[in-house]
Structure formats: structure tokens, C-alpha cells
Amino acid sequence: MDIDNRTSNLEIIATGARRASYRKKRKFDSGRPAANTKLGGKRIHTVRTRGGNTKYRALRLEGGNFSWASEGQARKTRVLTVVYNASNNELVRTNTLVKGAIIQVDATPFRTWYEGFYGLPLGKKKLTEAKAEEFDAVVNAKSEQRKKKWEERKSNAAVDQLLDDQFAAGRLYARISSRPGQSGRCDGYILEGKELEFYLKKIKSRK
Fold first, then answer.
1. Rounded CA separation 88/185 (Å)
2. Cβ atoms of 46 and 56 closer than 8 Å
3. How far is CA 120 from the centre of its chain?
4. Which secondary-structure segment (H or E) carries 113?
5. Helices (H) and strands (E) in the chain — how many of each?
6. What is the DSSP code string of 12-42?
């Protein structure tokens, strides 16, 4: 299906006049229907494009690679839901994955890495006594060499309070930086610092 929406050949100018057509329609003038990538089991179609190249049209995706910039780590994780989109609230209601959308992802892969690297628990607010004791038991069972490494790393282990609260809930806010309808991937980065504060205000004002 072709959508003739990219040509300037038939544009109406500011005064209301139509531009004179200087040629017929061309294949490269045509557009394509939007992918409208949804949350769900992975489903990707290939599209043959100009020059024999290929685009990967993701119709449904359930996860992707997300980076934790301040720690220099990236992990594959599940996408849970779409919470904010600057362009259209309808894209939030329908859980449509597009570049720039603010989503929530599963925090487990990042929590596992952090606790293994620093030997410290995340989301302390919701940590019950039983779980705290269990974590301490696991830490104490490790070798002296591992404990020494953890001690050296503790000076760099601080996590922003807003991020820690999200780890306690098991969901992290992230921003999609890839184009699911073009590359067939849903990759992005975890929101932190000023950017996280900005989007939290936006999300609250939309509710």
C-alpha cells in the first residue's frame, strides 16, 4: 500500500493557489503506513526499500536493550508499559512504542548486576527484615577477596533517591532512543537526574 504524502508537487501555497505540476508521480514520492508498534510477543516484518535495502517493521515487541548511563551498563529487559508521550496521549493509551516515548521497564536485570557488583541492596525502603537478613547472609558467605573488592567500590555506589524508589517498586522509567518501526528494535536508556525529574513532573500533570 502506497501513501502519496511526501511529494511537494501538488502542494497548496500560502495564498491558496496550487503549485503547477511539473512531472507525474514517482515511486520515491510515496510513503508507507505507520508501524504503530504495540506491546506483545515479538513480531517483525521486513520491508524491501530503495536500493534493495531492508527495513525491519516491528509490529509487536516485548523487550529491548536499555543502558544505565551513570554505571556504564546495558541490559536486556522487558518493557512493561508506556507512561508518557509528548506528541499524543492516544499513543500512551494504546501502548504504542515509538522513538522518544517514556516507558517503564523491569528493574530486575539492573538490580542483579548492582547487588553483585557493589554488594549492597537496592530499594532499601521496601526491604523487609527477613529479606535484609537473607541478603546479609549471602554477602557474608562470599570470599574475603570479593568482600575486599566490594569495600573498594562502596565510594562509587551512591544511587539517586528517585532511582532507588523505582528499584523498590521493581520498575524503572526509560526513554526509547531507537526507531521500532524502522530498525525492529526497542532500545533506550534509563532516565536519571534532571531528565528524570522533568518527565516525572510531566507524567503527574497528565494524570
1. 21
2. yes
3. 26
4. helix 108-118
5. 7, 8
6. B-TTSPBPPP-S---GGG-B------EESS-
Residue 60 forms beta bridges with which residues? 38, 43
Q: Quick check: helix, strand or coil at residue 141?
A: coil
Please give the chain's pLDDT, 207 residues, in tens.
556 666 767 677 888 888 888 888 888 888 899 999 999 999 999 999 999 999 999 999 999 999 999 999 999 999 999 999 999 999 999 999 999 999 999 999 999 999 888 888 887 666 666 565 666 666 666 667 777 887 788 888 888 889 989 998 999 999 999 999 999 999 999 999 999 999 999 999 876
Identify the pLDDT of residue 126: 61
The three grid cell numbers given for residue 182, joined into one nine-digit string: 524502522
Determine contact, residues 201/162, Cβ cutoff 8 Å.
Answer: no
pTM for the model stands at 0.84
Mapped onto helix, strand or coil, the DSSP state of residue 56 is strand
Q: Is 149 exposed, middle or buried (0-12, 13-18, 19+ CB in 10 A)?
A: middle
Please, which contacts does 84-90 make with residues 24 or more away whose CB atoms are closer than 8 Å? 84/199, 84/202, 84/203, 84/206, 86/202, 89/206
Which residues, in sequence order, are CB contacts of 163 under 8 Å at separation 6+?
172, 190, 192, 196
Please compute, for residue 10, the number of CA atoms within 13 A of its CA located in the half-sphere on the CB side: 9
Which secondary structure element, helix H or strand E, spans residue 54, and what is its range?
strand 54-61
